[in-house]
Design goal:
Order of helices and strands: HEEHHHHH
Organism: Streptodolium elevatio
Transmembrane segments: 16-37, 57-75, 82-103, 109-130
Structural class: mainly alpha
Keywords: Membrane, Transmembrane, Transmembrane helix
Protein name: DUF4383 domain-containing protein
Strand order of the largest sheet: 1-2
Pfam families: DUF4383
Helix content: 55-70%
Shape: elongated
Length: 177
Amino acid sequence: MQLHDELPVDHRLARVYRFGAGAVGLFLLVFGILGLVDRIEFFGATGEDVAGLSTNGALSVLSIAIGLVLLAGAFRGGNFVSTLNIVIGIGFLLSGFVNLALIGKDANVLGFGMSNVIFSFVVGLVLMTFGMYGRVGSALPHDNPYWRARNTHQAALEEAARRAKARGLPGGRAPAH
């Protein structure tokens, strides 16, 4: 059984996943477009300031591409966008570490500055939080589809008790078979 099969498309958690992907995707799209409008050097190691972040043409194009992927995920919704948020969030965290080591070097082909590294860490954590919301944790409610997928036996017992209670059986117990 895979978790993405367990969450209904119209589950209320899907709005959280969509919002996270849409907000970050929109920001990255605007940032990338602003970077390209300035006609900056494509692989400049120092980059130019756009919206408080350092960028060059390559980072602008990459930002547009990732922004479009996140917006497409937000449009699709469901568990897909939850997983997408987690994967891209991890990518942002890794990018922050790699580009931290590259600041001030010729290999800094994306023109990262310290503000970009901090941005990568923050956006990575934000996307991962949106993606994992309601999906991981030690105190998920028992009606949560992820809890039910991980605790199938207990979920079946609770469902049987709920049905018995609805039929008016005493104590909400399922009839013995």
